[in-house]
Predict the structure of N-acetyltransferase.
Amino acid sequence: MITKLDNLNEAVAQQIFTIFQHSYKVEAKLIGSIDFPPLSRSANEIKNSSTQFYGFSENECLAGIIEITIDNNLLDIHSLTVDPSYFRKGIASKLINYVIAIINCSKATVETAVVNIPAINLYKKHGFIEFKRWLPSHGIEKLAMSMEKAGPSS
């Protein structure tokens, strides 16, 4: 089941933080990063974030989270994480499909590391295409992907 998460609630922010830590440790290892910026984000920063969080729960356990913003008809996926104990169950796809279905937008964007092939393949499966590459100051080469949402957006 997918529900909107109340990140202003300290306990919920802590749950989000825990999933982020578990998932981003796996991603950091995958991409070969010792100092992975998402791992430095605190539960308090999550609590004070103005982004929206949606969570996928299985048997009342939070298993995956998608973090988004909507601005000028653009859906921006800030993060998509699944607890490693729930990998390979289609949860990330369910979260992407859910927000694309419920959010009134004409376009969606996401960024990930160039070497994060599993994430790139996941987004490609959902119709995202690469449109930009760059090297941020933290030294992990990134790419941006977007997809045009079909149908009316007004």
Summary: The chain has a mean pLDDT of 95. The radius of gyration is 15 Å. The first strand starts at residue 2 and ends at 5. The chain has four helices and seven strands.
